[in-house]
Amino acid sequence: MTASQVLFYAISTVILGSGILAVTSQRIFRSAIWLLLCLVGIAGLYFWMQVEFIAAVQIVVYVGGIVVLIIFSIFLTQESGKELPKPIMRRTVFALLATLFGFAFTYNLVYGHGFAAPTGEAFNVSVAEIGTQMLSTTNNGYILPFEVVSMLLLSAMIGCIVIAMKPPSNKNAGADMLFAQDVPGTRLITPGVVEPDLISEEV
Amino acid sequence: MYDVPLSHVLFVSTALFFIGMYGLFTRRNMITMLMALELLLNSVNINFIAFNKYLYPGKLDGVFFTIFIITIAAAEAAVAIAIIINLYRSHKSIDIESAAELKF
Questions:
Q1: Which of A70, A135, B35, B91 has the highest count of CB atoms within 10 angstroms of its CB?
Q2: Which of B31, B40, B44 has the highest number of chain A CBs within 10 A, making it the mutation to test binding with A?
Q3: What's the CA angle centered on A58, arms A158 and B15, to 5 degrees?
């Protein structure tokens, strides 16, 4: 067993182990951290395959962007230390059966398929090569998908802002509630409902 | 490098795909479902890179597909999180069972 093989199996173990923990952990924050480890492991697999540019993109976009976004949204939407409710038993059993069967079926196909042996041709993925081919307008150039994806990113950004923006009517209601809290003598029992007898007492 | 056969790399990506699918089936919290979706996309990326490297080393198409998938995954995650936050604002919950008004 060579060092390269040992490295591959170690990276694979990290990826699969942290992947399993990411989908089974009952605490959502731990689940996000396992996902982070899994994505770093995948970046390590890209380094192992000597596609350094993709590995860097993986770390910058996934680890630095998406996982941080997910962690922020966890903090915004729920108590991160709380345990999630356990999935019901029947669903777990059937999901396990479906995935195991699917995995066995797919890997059986992959294993039975005789792939051509590696040709030994050099795999040149320098950044210069990638940039030249991506922005070329001749055959095999990827300039059109590049432009389309930039439009997609722009529209996704605008869409996110529009979706996550607070509607103006809610803002007014919030301001009213804030005002009611500031007035001395009025106590909010539940948001928006001011007990009338408390106010009359003060008057 | 090539002393690990292609089918072993494909084993990792297939296993990762079905791990993500298991998470998508069992989880009912939208953020954790989004995480499972990211695992699915990543397993596809591993496939593209491995096929590119082992079978067509003279070309770069797998690398480009991976770059575009990563870009689209970032856009998708941002939109999904905007929807989740908006849903949390109106329902006070991001459980998928609580968002059932448009179900039928």
A1: B35
A2: B31
A3: 110
